[in-house]
Amino acid sequence: MRGGRFEAFIALRYLFALRKQSFISIISICAVCGVALGVAALIVVIGVMNGFSKDLRDKILGVNAHVIISSLAGGVRDAEAVETAASQTPEVVGVTPFIYSEVMLSSPEGVKGMVLRGIDPRTAESVLSLSKDMLDGRLSALADDDPDGRPGIIIGNELAKRLSLSPGMQVSLLSPSGRHTAAGFQPKIRNFIVQGTFRTGMYEYDSSLGYVTVEAARDLLGYKPGFVSGLEVRIKDVDRAEQVSQSLRQRLSGFPVYVRHWQEMNANLFAALKLEKTAMFIILAMIVLVGSFSIVNTLVMLVMQKTKDIAILMSLGAEPSSISRIFMLQGTFIGVIGTILGYALGVPTSLLLKKYQFIKLPSDVYPVDYLPVRLEALDMTLIGLAALALCFLSTLYPARRAAALNPSDALRYE
Predict the structure, then answer these.
(1) Which of 2, 11, 101, 274 could cross-link with 329 by S-S, CB 3.0 to 4.6 Å?
(2) How far apart are alpha carbons 233 and 230 in whole angstroms?
(3) For the chain, first and last CA: distance in Å?
């Protein structure tokens, strides 16, 4: 046997012989368990962080568009021309107008502030995922007034629960745009019929958001015909929002509008999530570091115990570099075993969490009501490489100590 084969053979012999030295064997088992637990914890926690970010992004983009076209003057002028130009931009799959305002919703059970969004039911389905979130009723029902001429409204299920509302019931919306009379300011009030409820899974939206048609919103808020607050745009690839937004800015340069994408509007939130993911990676990597310290202890004690063997190998012609590689390989083998066991523990645990969702979260505290998990190949690779790198670094000192051994001093008292 020559070169690497000789060193690997000796390293494996020492590794499998550890069971004869019970104390060293216990330390090596602790090293393997430390590495395995660290890798498993990293896989599960990073998977949860990825799932949380992905689920939160999907929920936000289900209620909000990928790109928003707004006006610099309070309302988009020539909305139809802007919509036509935007829809002709490459990678744009849907454009719909919207009106945004805050109103008061009044029912027999109480009054609550609400975010009102006027949408076009015909084109909204190509941009928003509201149809998938409907619990009762249909999105298209917004366009149908009841026999008494009352327009429809769709509200979040948490808002409906709070005010004891269900489809078919009447509510009143109070607009901040009213008129001044001799008795003071009089708000504008319109009656609506609840046509359905939706549930996005995000308490913030489900407890304070309502949809009406663009025409009904104009009438309630006192806007002129044709007025819209802006246009919502859906694109093919959400990760290319920056590039598509730049294309839209160039195409709409002749209109007094500005373009923002979802990454800009939620930059602080997703930057905080990314920072938290990095911090969790560093903190949990400390568990692997603890396991790697156990590898140092194992190898140092093994070097002390195998002094005679090392001296004999050197006397037979083994180079110091070969002796060093023997112990480096042995520590690396321990790290590889621990990493494999960590994957064997962490991946099934993550998949079970993803499939059965048996850890529930309070929906009024967190934006999701379960613990989401998403395993990504890049993160899985980085976790394995980080664990192996820490284990390899832990072998350097014991390997150098073994290579520096003097054969004559080791055999002098044998």
Answers:
(1) 11
(2) 10
(3) 28
Sign for the CA dihedral angle at 231, 236, 237, 238 comes to: positive
Asked if 51 contacts 354 with a C-beta cutoff of 8 angstroms, the reply is yes
Token pair for 336: 């590889």
Are β-strands 209-213 and 170-181 bridged in parallel, bridged antiparallel, or unpaired? Answer: unpaired
Contact (Cβ atoms closer than 8 angstroms) between residue 193 and residue 169 = yes
Q: How far is Cα 100 from Cα 105, in angstroms, rounded to an integer?
A: 15
- pTM for the model stands at 0.79
Q: Quick one: pLDDT at residue 1?
A: 46
Q: Is residue 197 predicted with pLDDT exceeding 80?
A: yes
Q: What pLDDT, on a 0 to 100 scale, did the predictor assign at position 147?
A: 79
Closest CA to 226 of 211, 215, 235: 215
Distance (Å, rounded) from C-alpha 44 to C-alpha 346? 6
User: Residue 230 has which token pair?
Assistant: 């802006």
For residues 114 and 192, give the distance between their C-alpha atoms in angstroms, rounded to a whole number: 14
Burial of 409 (0-12, 13-18, 19+ CB in 10 A): exposed
